[in-house]
């Protein structure tokens, strides 16, 4: 039995008269970053709609009863390893009064037990018992027509892929492999070649609508321009080899850079702000790279619509999970990874490279503030529009150049299809 | 995990004993605490006054500097938000901040709690102290940006103190927007 209204059928909340003002997605109205009704509609049509949402890593819940609390959009979700080794995920909300069931970030349980009135559910979310169901001393108790089977926790469908656990609230979501497409599935396989180990967590509070960060990740045009550290120290230059892969439906993408085509001629270095300032690192060991994935790719950023980023920057591996926190805020959860069989030297290499990314990352800290710059200006005139003409009007992939906004246009195509606007 | 970090201070306070001050001669502990307190005042003043080029000078040549979250620290997870080994990496943080990284101008006001002396040797001292940092943005908005404790190890000589290790443990797992100025 569902605890939540079905998507799209609920009257009154999140209703919108919004219509997309153009045929294509080369222009985006600022309203989408500020409108609370659109935000409410996104919860139902995107996060509880036909999308696969990252929940956790299998490595985080290795033993029966291990759980991790997370979010799918605004919805609190708990994902748990069952005693038979399977994984389930449920809305982290008691069917009785709606209290959060697991209020720690992680832990181990035998059943879901609500602290408020001691309603108990098994690890699939099936209601097992209600305190004082027959009352006390023959008085009180549940109404005669209370059917326990009607009050289970709302469960998500689960799929795991290469150690990543995804969940969806919708019956319409296609299988994960079909959702992502073969080409981008192979990109996940490229990175997650062995069992994973978590090296740590942190989160970054972003002063902007979640979509501005989603766009930022799909926007490979900005990388060499905003992130000056990139250019100066040679992690990424516009003339390095690489390209953009985009799923056929436009929803997902991968941007990558490889060392093979690196040269230092003027074409790649001109008109890049950083090059006015020449400086060198006193200790370049943060840039050290030990290729481990069978190719020369130095930088690979993959998105899974709507809110997952899979990152390989040198030897810094991570998943970034974006959680909306209202129309004008979001929170980015970084789970930083290594492989289970890493030796100590490799762990140290990864930890050094992690200075490049995260909330204090040499090449990624700017992503924390630049969304806020757009958010602040968006308020002024919600009917005005951004424009993204770089690399065409459509969602064509690009080999050899990352100077394109095609993947961002693809994101908006996915957003419109989910939202029905 | 750095077990022992949270043990009794050299003043003799711990969780199980009545308050005594018998572990070290009083004067040695007092002198060291006073020296370190003065050092920490200079350290945070350099940061808060934007004399960031001086910041690496507070450390030994091969010092370790880490900003970690309490969650990672308590779970024994090695990730830092910011991690430097050696003065070169410390000065790289400052040169990147000055010339490469893009962020809105802001300043810190560090407020340090009492310095708790954990070890007081001839050549080495260790302390733990609580801190908070209030961040003021260029538009005037203020917030408590960071709160936690620093676990500091000093190289001691007659002439000077230097940090050989500074681990800043943040109580929160969240960083608001970005961390660029060191703590």
How would you explain this protein's 3D organization?
The complex is a heterodimer of chains A (421) and B (183). Chain A is of the alpha+beta class. Chain A has 10 helices and 20 strands. Chain A has 2 domains: 53-160, 3-layer Sandwich (Rieske Iron-sulfur Protein); 180-419, Naphthalene 1,2-dioxygenase Alpha Subunit, Chain A, domain 1. In chain A, 21% of the residues lie in helices and 26% in strands. Chain A has an 8-stranded antiparallel sheet, with helices on both faces. Chain B has 3 helices and 7 strands, in the order αβαβαβββββ. In chain B, a hairpin with a 4-residue loop joins β5 (142-156) and β6 (161-170). The longest helix of chain B has 23 residues, at 26-48. Chain B is globular and about 50 Å long. Chain B starts with 25 loop residues before the first helix and ends in a 7-residue tail after the last strand. The model of chain B has no long low-confidence stretch (mean pLDDT 90). The chains are: A alpha+beta (421), B alpha+beta (183). At the A-B interface, β12, α6, α8 and α9 of A face β2, α3 and β7 of B. β12 of chain A pairs parallel with β7 (174-176) of chain B, so a sheet runs across the interface.
